[in-house]
Design a protein that fits this description.
about 150 residues; mainly beta; 2 domains; 3-stranded antiparallel sheet; two-stranded antiparallel ribbon
Length: about 150
């Protein structure tokens, strides 16, 4: 890819969009900041940067996400290079935050066999019961929300 900005028409032409709508997942009260998705050239390669920020409240939190509605992440081979950071760009360190790369298809019905989800979730300062950094890798084949049943 070779995009210039978060609103580059080539992004949507390739089936992707930079999120600007409200809702989860994420911190309650946070906003989605498409302008925080930027592109740079590093060693001749185009690199997408997603930057989030917070002052410690939901209202001060700005999140970023790039999504596709295509149902293309189940079977097959695909690759991405992802770099997570251990420390914030500025400000104090230590918040329990989650940096994630994931592929997911919408659940069309409880226990639907066309659902899939693969999560790579990095917690640089611990959290979720962990006291230090950890990388969770999880796959979900399908699930049912109520009552909760997961196949992974």
């Amino acid at each position: 890819f070779n995009y210039r900005a978060y609103n580059d028409p080539k992004i949507s032409a390739h089936g992707w969009s930079v999120r600007s709508t409200s809702g989860g997942p994420g911190v309650s009260g946070a906003t989605w900041a498409p302008e925080n998705v930027t592109f740079a050239t590093t060693s001749g390669n185009s690199v997408m940067n997603l930057e989030t920020s917070t002052a410690g409240t939901g209202e001060s939190t700005k999140q970023t996400e790039v999504v596709t509605n295509a149902r293309k992440f189940k079977n097959g081979t695909y690759a991405a290079r992802v770099k997570f950071n251990d420390a914030p760009k500025y400000g104090p360190d230590g918040d329990h935050l989650v940096q994630t790369f994931f592929t997911i298809n919408d659940l069309t019905a409880p226990m639907a066999d066309d659902y899939s989800e693969y999560d790579f979730e990095y917690l640089p300062n611990g959290g979720w019961g962990e006291t230090s950094d950890i990388l969770y890798t999880t796959s979900w084949e399908t699930y049912q929300a109520d009552p909760w049943v997961a196949v992974n």
